[in-house]
Amino acid sequence: MLYDSLRAKRDFEMSYSYADIVLPLAQPAYCYAIAEGAELREGDAVAVQFGVRHIYTGIVWRLHNEPPRVKRVKTVGRRLYDVPLVGAQQRRYWEWLAEYYMCTLGEVMRMALPSLIKPRGASEVEFSTAEFSPRTEPYIALRAEWREGEVLQAECERICRRAPRRAELLRTIAAFDESKRNSLGEVPRRLLECDAAQIAALRKAGYITVEERERRVERDNSVAFVLPTLSDEQRRVKEEIASSEKNVHLLHGVTGSGKTEIYMHFIAETLSRGGDVLLLVPEIALTAQLIERMERVFGSRVTAYHSRLTALRRTESYMRLAHSEGGELVVGARSALFLPLKRLQLVVVDEEHDSSYKQSDTAPRYQGRDCAVVLASMFGARTILGSATPSLESYANAQWGKYGYSRLEERYGSSRQPRIIISDTMRSVKRGERKSHFNVQLLNVMHDALERGEQVMLFQNRRGFTPFVQCSGCGWTMRCPHCNVTLTMHRKSNRMECHYCGYVADVPHHCPQCETADLKPMGFGTERVEEAVAELFPEARVARLDRDTSTSESAYNRIVRDFESGATDILVGTQMITKGFDFSRVSVVGVLNADNLICSPDFRSSERAFQLLTQVAGRAGRRETEGVVVVQTSETEHPLLGWVLRGDYEAMARSELQERHAFSYPPYSHLFMFTLRHENLSLLRRGAMWFADSLRAKFGGRVFGPVAPSVDRIRGVYIQRLMLKIENGRSLARARELLREVLRDAAAHEEYKPITITTDVDAQ
Ligand code: ADP
Ligand code: ZN
Ligand code: ZN
Fold first, then answer.
1. Between these two residues, 578 and 705, which has the higher pLDDT value?
2. How many whole angstroms separate alpha carbon 540 and alpha carbon 549?
3. Does the CB atom of residue 234 touch ligand 1 within 6 A?
4. 259 lines ligand 1 (CB under 6 A)
5. Residue 2 confidence (pLDDT)
6. Cys-Cys with 116: which of 48, 132, 196, 379 at CB 3.0–4.6 Å?
7. For 255-264, what is the mean pLDDT?
8. Ligand 1, atom 10, residue with closest C-alpha
9. What are the tens digits of pLDDT across the range 38-70?
10. 3 state DSSP class of 578
11. 3-state secondary structure 67-104
């Protein structure tokens, strides 16, 4: 903060001739000349011409006096905002990101700044129209001559008979609560209960002034936080964290142990000191409930920030924080890591194990949890990583003494750990104890729970009706013409759908190969489960939560609210239902098929399955009711289920870490994943072989592949993958250097340069 303003002052006083500007493109920073007399600071947003026909928003990265080698240098355009958009720490953080995740600063910029803040255009006119202008609203004040209490009083009495409503309104304005006025003492019009005509009349009669001003959410700092009283165990852990000399602390606490309450205490302390807090949550799905809980304690201090908010809301939040002097609580998804907080003192990463912290689809392909730790360390802030099932990376860091570690073993209050039943699907089939997708064991506990007026959640990790339809004559399956996958049948829309590219087709009646009409639905998704439940429990009200039913935020919220209020009895869903929800009336959770979770070839699959099953189980019996979790599987002897059953995270971690160590997987190494794409399969294959050879020349046996992923064609483009493993203790910086050489060669290669190569550092 102080540093920033001193620096800005220095920037203004020194005169520089050039500025390196970062543009929102996959390009390096470009050097521009600074016009005589223009005042620029590092971190400022400016309008700059790029190419002949583009005006972009750029960020002033570095001011200097070194003339560039090119002859003609363009001049920086006007400055866009009164504050620097990207502060000094944020700039260091962007630089770290670009280096670590091997992308350009421009790519970081593209993602870090909300779209409206960085207008662009083909001309100055187009640029200006795209520019962000804050929403305004009318603010009202009494004119100077009426501010004297007695004068106004007398006037009100005078007009009272003729215009009672007018007098009333004047009195209201005069007596308006100080804390709700703006810094000029004006009252926001929206807080007055009156219509526009009344205001206009008062103004015309000369009583008031009306000014359009930027709409600012006034923050009420006077409210004292009412914090939950911690239990003895919670207090012990809080003290452990507070007194730890480690800056990063892993809080390993079972679901319902009250990690959130512990966060609240640290948050309150930080805010009271005027520090900023960043509370990260994995997905928007989760944020709603948590934001509400935070608002109950911290009121208007809370700023929500995630991708489902409108661009305008995000931009307003960004601008407001850029002006803020501290004491902010941001609750958000990983994108909140880029907000311009200047006094960051605490970062909390809730559900730190969640894989959605990793951005995989576009550059920078960053891991939000790791970034949180790095960002916090740049500010000298404390980081708390919370989870009921920590990632093995964080757990190993705690074991190696890099992170502090605390364990909360008990649920808060009277709620107990749920009872977990492993239900053998094969045996149920043999004994005739299976109906549709349910073992009788699960049906019985569901029945009892519904009888008692309690709720049930059913988890199935596939959406749609059936993942494919197959011809019973020749084995034909209907596949996507653009992707190498089968089409999923959706019953409600009565369509076949590709879950990779969105292609839809009619449900086939005949097999096109052998003309047989006997097409069998194979496997089952949430939609089919929902249908089966409705048949088995005709009295129950059933709802489904998955990508298909929650296409909008309001649809999503309605489903969650209905279940929360008890308007629905059974909720069927995908991963979406497993996370963080706190529904007090749920006493039964059913996992319909755990087999595909347990038996997946990915090296993280055991860790993931353990996390998922434990999280799902955590939804049961959050209050007085004892929870029951039924896991249906034919792999009853799998050791993983034993660990889940006993809640034995340590055993899972020990076994998994041993394996990871033996094969040098993370956390014992870093993975670089390369994805190569091209429409021409034979070109792609040759290019991938060439790329593999080039990598092997530098990294030898650390290179694996190329291989075709399980879905090796999407939207008509073929895909090949390669992996590079760099063991701990080896220099990552050196590895990146070598890698850049190979990637440069590939980009310049006569034949293979049309192949798109993306690099994913610390791939999941
Ligand atoms: P976690 O975040 O570890 O899953 P929560 O913070 O959601 O656990 O706590 C589980 C439940 O217990 C919540 O409903 C919460 O309100 C309640 N709870 C936990 N600790 C306290 C406390 N100290 N005082 C009051 N309620 C608490
Ligand atoms: Zn057929
Ligand atoms: Zn497709």
1. 705
2. 19
3. yes
4. yes
5. 47
6. 132
7. 92
8. 256
9. 889 999 999 999 988 899 999 999 999 998 888
10. coil
11. CCCCCCCCECCCECCCCCCCCHHHHHHHHHHHHHCCCC
Residue 615: the pLDDT is: 86
Give the percent of the chain with pLDDT over 90.
54
Ligand 1 neighbour 257 (Cβ under 6 A): yes
Query: 261 CB under 6 A from ligand 1?
Result: yes
Instruction: Give the pLDDT score at 697.
Output: 96
Q: Are 631 and 420 in contact (CB under 8 A)?
A: yes
CA distance 461 to 596: 9
Q: pTM for the whole thing?
A: 0.86
pLDDT tens for residues 139-183? 888 888 888 888 888 888 888 888 888 888 888 888 888 777 777
Ligand 1 nearest-atom number relative to CA 408: 3
Ligand 3 centroid from CA 716, angstroms: 8
Task: Kindly tell me if the per-residue pLDDT of 5 is higher than 60.
Answer: no
Cβ–Cβ under 8 Å, residues 533 and 542: yes
Structure tokens at 712: 């090796």
Q: Ligand 1 pocket: which of 225, 261, 407 to mutate (most atoms <8 Å of CB)? A: 261
Residue 354: phi and psi, rounded to 5, are -65, 130
pLDDT at 101: 96
Ligand 1 in reach of 255 Cβ (< 6 A): yes
Nearest-angstrom CA–CA distance, 291 and 307:
15
The DSSP call for residue 314 is: H
Please choose from 226, 351, 412 the residue to mutate so as to test ligand 1's pocket, defined by most ligand atoms within 8 A of CB: 412
CA dist list (Å): 376 to 278, 321, 364: 9, 17, 19
Secondary structure letter of residue 371 according to DSSP: H
pLDDT at 1 > cutoff 60: no
Looking up tokens 């990508």 gives 547
Residues 6+ apart with CB under 8 A from 125: none
Cβ of 231 below 6 Å from ligand 1: yes
In angstroms, the CA 1 to CA 341 distance is 10
Distance (angstroms) between ligand 3 centre and the Cα of 552 equals 23
Q: What is the pLDDT of residues 460-488, one digit of tens each?
A: 988 887 778 888 888 888 899 998 888 98
Decide if 318 contacts 83 (C-beta within 8 A).
no
The mean pLDDT value for 103-125 works out to 91
Nearest to 224 by CA among 298, 287, 282: 298
From the CA of 496, the nearest ligand is 3
- CA dist 121 and 131 (Å) reads 10
Which of 236, 260, 289 is the best mutation target for the ligand 1 pocket, counting ligand atoms within 8 Å of the beta carbon and taking the most?
A: 260
| CA-to-CA separations, 266 to 261, 548, 567, in angstroms, rounded | 9, 38, 36
